[in-house]
């Protein structure tokens, strides 16, 4: 699902995530693979010493180049990993701390600010430990909501898409109990988020019109009401309204069959009713190359689709695949916006 990167006008800003996790070492690894992975220039926000130590834990001799402004990253990127800012933390892989959380929050705040101002072409966010960040003033449910607030976008209009080489999925409801999902699903929710997805796939992925498959909620998509009426009362009316607007939507599809190999070529993205319905197939097919993309923002934001992985941090065994994929995808989206004259 990736194409050739055209360099965007501004480099990507990368936030460190929790310094005790695997993000710093994977940022370093990604820089060493920049040419073979066709990555656009990027710079890390803070953590110069931490990144060097993380690289050393993987046996990488990482040249770190301190920069005074994002613009300097374009030239510096060929010679070393550009790092903006003097903020740092002591290496303590696998042991999250307040010091590390303060660096993570600073890095995230500055990276988002630079993307909003247009000094960065987009942001790639490293995984965080939300409980630790909460101790130092982080009040949002997650980084998606943090980015939405910085952009002046309502949380409900910042849509999470999981994307890999084989599949794209969007969960319409995310971090809520399964028992709450039926009440949260409304015609308006389905229609509003489907429109956001269609617009974003056209703008950032060149898919116009995007072919959108919408799943059912119940087994066998309700089987004509015998296994639940959500499809009849809510999902089908929403699909019909969207189709009347000219969107290329189909469904409701039984989720147990939609993701089979012979079905996946028929759609560009699957809109799923709840968290696991969307994340199980993407993590099964593309675990080491999955990217979390936030749709509906005026900035480009991606993140590797994995957590902090404290248990393996600093051991040199974490796969860089998802970090590289997140950087590549952010670069492609930023380049497409730059080519279309869309402000960063």
Distinctive features:
Isopropylmalate Dehydrogenase; globular; twelve-stranded mixed sheet; alpha/beta; 344 residues; 12 strands; 15% strand; 40% helix
Q: Quick summary of this structure?
A:
It contains 13 helices and twelve strands.
Distance between the termini: 22 Å
Which strand order does the major sheet show?
3-4-2-1-5-12-11-6-7-10-8-9
| Biggest beta sheet attributes | 12 strands, mixed
General form: globular
pLDDT < 50 runs, ≥5 residues: 1-7
Number of helices: 13
Q: Provide the residue-averaged pLDDT.
A: 93
Oligomer state of the chains in this structure? single chain
Assign the CATH topology of the largest domain. Answer: Isopropylmalate Dehydrogenase
Provide the CATH superfamily of the largest domain.
Isopropylmalate Dehydrogenase
Number of strands: 12
What helical percentage do the residues reach? 25-40%
Top-tier CATH class of the largest domain: Alpha Beta
Task: Explain the overall architecture.
This protein is an alpha/beta fold and 344 residues long. It is 40% helix and 15% strand. Helix 4 runs parallel beside helix 6 (143-151). The protein folds into two domains: 1-153 and 298-344, Isopropylmalate Dehydrogenase; 159-296, Isopropylmalate Dehydrogenase (3-Layer(aba) Sandwich). It has a twelve-stranded mixed β-sheet, with helices on both faces. It has helices at residues 23-32, 48-57, 73-76, 98-117, 130-134, 143-151, 181-184, 187-205, 230-244, 255-258, 261-264, 275-286, 321-340; strands at residues 12-15, 42-45, 64-67, 81-84, 122-125, 159-163, 168-171, 211-215, 248-253, 269-272, 291-295, 301-304. It contains 13 helices and twelve strands.
């Amino acid at each position: 699902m990736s194409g050739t990167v055209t360099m965007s006008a501004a480099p990507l800003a990368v936030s460190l995530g929790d310094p005790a996790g695997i993000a710093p070492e994977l940022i370093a690894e990604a820089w060493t693979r920049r040419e073979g992975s066709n990555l656009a220039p990027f710079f890390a926000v803070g953590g110069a010493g931490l990144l060097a130590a993380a690289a050393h834990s993987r046996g990488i001799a990482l040249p770190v180049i301190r920069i005074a402004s994002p613009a300097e990253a374009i030239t510096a990127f060929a010679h070393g990993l550009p790092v903006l800012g003097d903020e740092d933390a002591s290496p303590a892989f696998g042991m999250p701390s307040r010091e590390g959380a303060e660096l993570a929050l600073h890095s995230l705040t500055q990276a988002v600010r630079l993307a909003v101002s247009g000094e960065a072409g987009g942001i790639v966010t490293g995984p965080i430990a939300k409980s630790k960040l909460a101790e130092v003033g982080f009040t949002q449910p997650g980084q998606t909501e943090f980015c939405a607030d910085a952009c002046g976008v309502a949380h409900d209009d910042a849509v999470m898409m999981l994307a890999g080489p084989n599949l794209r999925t969007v969960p319409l409801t995310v971090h809520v109990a399964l028992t709450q999902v039926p009440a949260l699903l409304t015609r308006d929710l389905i229609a509003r988020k489907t429109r956001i997805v269609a617009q974003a796939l056209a703008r950032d992925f060149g898919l116009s019109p995007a072919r959108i498959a919408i799943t059912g909620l119940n087994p066998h998509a309700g089987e004509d009401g015998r296994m639940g009426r959500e499809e009849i009362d809510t999902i089908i009316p929403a699909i019909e309204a969207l189709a009347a607007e000219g969107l290329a939507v189909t469904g409701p599809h039984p989720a147990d069959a939609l993701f089979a190999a012979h079905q996946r070529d028929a759609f560009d993205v699957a809109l799923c009713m709840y968290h696991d319905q969307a994340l199980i197939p993407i993590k099964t097919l593309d675990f080491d190359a999955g990217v979390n993309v936030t749709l509906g923002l005026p900035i480009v934001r991606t993140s590797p689709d994995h957590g902090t992985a404290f248990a393996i941090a600093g051991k040199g065994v974490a796969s860089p695949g998802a970090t590289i994929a997140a950087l590549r995808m952010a670069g492609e989206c930023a380049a497409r916006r730059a080519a279309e004259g869309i402000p960063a």
